[in-house]
Design brief:
Chain B: This is Peptide/nickel transport system substrate-binding protein. The complex is a heterodimer of chains A (305) and B (506). Chain A has 305 residues and is mainly α. In chain A, 78% of the residues lie in helices and 0% in strands. With 506 residues, chain B is an alpha+beta fold. Chain B has 2 domains: 238 residues, D-Maltodextrin-Binding Protein, domain 2 (3-Layer(aba) Sandwich); 210 residues, Dipeptide-binding Protein, Domain 3 (Dipeptide-binding Protein, domain 3, Roll). Chain B is built from 16 helices and 18 strands. In chain B, α9 runs antiparallel to α11 and α15 packs antiparallel against α16. The interface between A and B is large, with 61 and 61 residues.
Amino acid sequence: MLQFILKRLGLALLVALTVSIISFSLLFLSGDPASAIGGETATDQDIEAIRVLYGFDRPLVVQYWDWLSSALTGDLGESYYFKLPVASLIADRLQITMILGVCGISFALLTAVPLGVAAAIRPNSFIDRLALFLSVAGQAMPSFWFGLILIVVFAIQLGWLPPSGASSPVHFIMPTIVLGYYAMPAIMRLTRAGMLDVLSSDYIRTARAKGASEGRVLFKHALRNAIIPVVSLAAVQMGFMLGGSIVVESIFALHGAGYLAWESIARNDLPTVQALILVFSLFYIIFTFLSDVLNAWLDPRMRAG
Amino acid sequence: MKYARSNWTAAATAICVACAGSAWAGKADDTLNAAFTKELENVDSYFNSSREGVVLQRAIWDGLIYRDPATNEYKGNLATSWEWIDDTTLEFKLREGVTFHNGEPFNADDVVYTVNFVADEANGVKTQRNVNWMKSAEKIDEYTVRILLKEPFPAAIEFLSGPVSMYPNEYYAEAGPSGMGLKPVGTGPYKVIDVVPGAHFVLEKNETYHDSPKGQPEIGKVDIRTIPDVNTQIAELFSGSLDLIWQTPADQAEKLATMDQFTVANESTMRIGYLTLDAAGRTGEDNPFTKLKVRQAVAHAIDREALVNALLKGKSQVISTACYPSQFGCDQNVTSYEYDPEKARALLAEAGYPDGFSTDYYAYRDRDYAEAISSFLNAVGIETNFNMLQYSALRELRMKEGSPVSFQTWGSYSINDTSAITSQFFKFGSLDDSRDQEVKDWLDIADSSTDPEVRKEHYSKALKKIADQVYWVPMFSYNTNYVFTKDVDYTPTPDEVLRFTTMRWN
């Protein structure tokens, strides 16, 4: 088991390193960073001065090594754009994104799993059709449109919720629904498929035959097995939510890490982008790892491996 | 984030529908709620190059001089009078009894410190051209100060009345640009009470503001949030949690204007849009744009009137000179080219392209305008291979190898002088696509002469030649929509600076 974990960790670190090298080179390919920092009003001399000041005139490899060696000592540098330490900038923004991500995935799981189970118990019933409808709609609706519709209904027509911002828990209700609803369909369909599969298996028939209550059969025997792929999927979705909630953060003016990453790419703010990519890849690594552990707990067969 | 750091992280997980809509804004609690679209990098006005930064700068700080946006007349602000001692020396008498928001008194030491700090290139002021004409400043006595210029620079007064603000010497020495960005201190009509970098800014009326030509602020608090999505801004406006938005796209503004609860005010800005053509042949000797007739054909091919009426709307106007009409020296009496596609085709044929030709065509913003221009060019046989690039990528391309034709815009960083635009692009810099020695010589004279008549004459010569040679095809000026609720009374100015000081409650 320990060997397995170490192997996984080593692989994960290699992935993080590769991602950071690629993103570093891509940023240089997407435009001259000195021009981006100088902005539209910078003169030729300004741009030249910036190039020297930030060391863009040095070979790319040297620049990357510089960044990597200070990042390894915990120094993520200063944002070119905000002139603030990247670490504190990201810490502030990550808080928003984490809250949104946790709420979003909780919303998705709390709606998707019960719906998936209900749909699997009675295939082709009304509840199954409803679940199918909800998941198709969730998959088909773009977040920016769904978000605006929610704003129009709940903030303007009904006046129940604030349209945007992050100054109170209430501000997170609509973003949570939009972000969670986007992740819901996949989780629900997977739960339904898993449950259908498991419910027709021999050991469920055995459990029923020995007189176990329906609730016990469903949740102790069936769901526990059906949920294993869902846990892996949810882990990936969670990573996606932390890094990819750009649209939702931008519509609801949340100023989280996803939006910061998006804007920083446009601004060629290298230290910020590099640090965010590092953090996002760490999230993926941690969540995938956690899902493995959780799966091992759910399925004793995996513990042996 | 400051407000997120409180103890509600736990509460957020137990989301419950509390009563929203508390303390909704506006007139009732004397707080004007406004929105920015873009994240401002640093409130310190010397370390940002954003329009949002200019808006805050005018509210938080003061300059020595002030230009009345209505009459363009220069008035004393932190200085009460000024005079040119010689071509490179300006002497100021300072206003007495002014204090900074932190209580520090304003005097010659502050001016000397600010000027010497920003003029020193090593301090890395982001907007170098706002300050790089100053050499240093010296104190004559407590309330008299001299600013020394590197070389004669007649636009000095315009710069001193705009982007050059006075900072408190003791505080700035200690706080530096990062500290100033997080806790700005000035003498201006509004003081800053909260900054969340990029996201949220709260200003409060300076009750002891000096007798400034900016006028006295009336609205008690200004709360500005950055809301990147225009639709969300409009939703906030509808729900009553915003009182004012700006830079609203023309189509949205048109719809909002039909509603009773909002006022839509439109005002022109100093930004102009133009095509720059590779007359110098930087992209290749045989490049079609090196031929005058081809350049004239381009100018005749585009219906600029239609672009203004259909896309830009508002107070935008068709322009023919390579500058914004209100700028000093921007002579309007130059050759203009009417929309005439037939003539354009004939000119192309005369130039040796009876069947037209194809060319790369670039833009970095306003895709819809750029595409409309491209279709006008296609219609006369100039087949455009349209590339939309990031600003920094297009700039790199133009600096290195030039572009045959590209759609560019320039806002003159709100400086009302032709030196802020024409001289930036026709003096053999890396973005000069014409490289005309005569034009450069005229601009050099106009930029450095202290005689206004000499300046006008030489700008005029340069602008006339640029138009005759069609180095640029000037298109239109931009405009901005300001949308606010009926509670707010505001008249925008043509320089795209939101002035909270002149806003009133109805």
